[in-house]
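FIELD: query
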Amino acid sequence: MSEEKQKKEIRYISVEGVIGAGKTTLSKLLTEKLKADLILEQFEANPFLDKFYLDRKRYAFQTQIFFLLNRYQQQQSLMQATLFAEYLVSDYIFEKDKIFAYLNLEGDELKLYETLAFQLEKNIVKPDIVIYLQASVDRLMDNIHKRNREMEKNMQRSYIEQLADAYNHFFFMYKSTPLLIVNATEMDFLNNQKDLDELIKLIFRKDRALVEYFSPEPKGLL
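FIELD: result
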């Protein structure tokens, strides 16, 4: 990636992470702080999602195709938004759809998905930086239980473990945009203004590397 690409002005920020990592919470905080436009993933619009959590194998293909097309339609609106908004924040990236597809699909269904996704990807606007919230499975499960969404009540720990491994692999190989990996296990951006302010400084830092890591300072013994 060229130095010009690396130094590109940051206007479009995407937040990513496994279910329960705090993507939407952080996205809303960044939106408020930057007075940005906000794009949220419309997971609740998927009519197959609650069925998928009950029977992954039976409903994986319907769930995945709905998400792919819904996300694509939503991303098309970004082409206009990025022209006029000073800042734009989203709580997902389009490419992450593949993480779930490769985890839940196989055979002819996966081939059909790949063909469709390849064509749609050509028209997607990439963010200027991606923030990956990396958290322990214990923290993810705790957050899922606390928010108590009806469709997530039957979610199995083993599935979150698989997702966490898949996300880590995906972002280990990720090279599409500058990437900021955040150790979210011990962070609470909602209640810790210092961590949020430090994160924003890293996002807009002029000498930012293509891949950077942000972890909270070790807390001393009381």
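FIELD: remark
The CA atoms of residues 103 and 128 lie 27 Å apart.
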